[in-house]
Amino acid sequence: MTNLVTGATGTVGRQVVAELLRRGQSVRALTRDPAKADFPEGVEVVRGDLTDAESLAPALEGVTGLHLITFGGPYFAPLETGPRITALAKAAGVRRVTVLHGGGPSQLEDAVRESDLAWTVLMPVEFMANALEWADAIRADGEVREPFAGRLSAMVHEADIGAVAAVALTEDGHGGQEYVITGPQVLTLEDKVAALSAARGRKIRLVELSEQQAVEQWRAAGQPEDVIGFLLEAYGNTPPVGRTVVDTVEKVTGRPARTFAEWAEEHADAFRA
């Protein structure tokens, strides 16, 4: 069985590749630039671009499991090639498909859902890896500057998303399922900063920003206005799904979801000066 992973160099894609390798699967990784992919030995790296559906045809040869993302191009623009990608997958003999839900309407996700493929939609909440956005400020100033300090998140380790995807791609019983994927705890910003402080061995200050200060900070970092609007809504009015723990990881993989403290220990060096 060969599994094709699109978005393979991304935060989740790399974890899907890693989990499939751990399960002894044949893995083919799709990327626009194979020379920069940097995958472990045993991964077949192929060139392709989801915005050009026809470029996937050679990569799909002999593939039985397909992991898809729903965006391409700058700023996570939704793909417009969903129906063609789905048709190519079906023609190639793909049996199982996982789709990483992008948080909004998706032509690709709709096309996969409407197909007769054994699809699984993965719906993770906030990635633990998002904390890496604080790394520069923590190394330079020993602080995190964020709005809405009391906001809650059931954030998930990206490796757990990869693990759920790998099971769905290689085992029966997951077709037609939507899996919300969370970590094992609901955390505040204070909880996250405390875990990072413990992991790096030095205290980190949490500086709560006003909404206006946060907007100015995000603009200075080059964030587009629509992304800023999304962040204000997501952080200031986090929906219940983003702050409610579910046991998907344990049910699907047979082991508990990883904690943020574990993630912090794994990435501690990124936060040390």
Automatic annotation (TrEMBL):
Pfam families, per the entry: NAD_binding_10 (PF13460)
Secretion signal, residue range per the UniProt entry: none
Record domain NAD(P)-binding: where: 7-101
Domain of life the protein comes from: Bacteria
Record's protein name: NAD(P)H-binding protein
Taxonomic lineage from the root: Bacteria, Bacillati, Actinomycetota, Actinomycetes, Kitasatosporales
